[in-house]
Design goal:
Number of helices: 4
Strand content: under 5%
Length: 112
Amino acid sequence: MKRILTALNDYLQDFSSLIYPNLCICCNESLVKQEQHFCTRCAIGLPRTYYHLASMNPVEQLFWGRVKIEKATSFFLFQKGSKYQKLLHHLVNMPHGIVTVGKFPNCLTLPM
């Protein structure tokens, strides 16, 4: 019985996605079932910084002499007008002001 209900639920979700498709925040392409918020192509194409691997990275240098910090990093490079600008706006405007990356409630999970 559980299999039947699961299959029925999948069919209903697939049908509703025909009418109200889930779209990628960055490129507006349809998302597949395993994707949330943005597509795998956009996730792979993110201009990542890898600053978390380097000490004295440019983000840390921004804070030197201003405030005492232990670490600072940036996940990806922001370029005004790029398709990733929408992603940043989505992060900033998430419910409850949560701006985190990971597998927690109300946050954006980025496939690695």
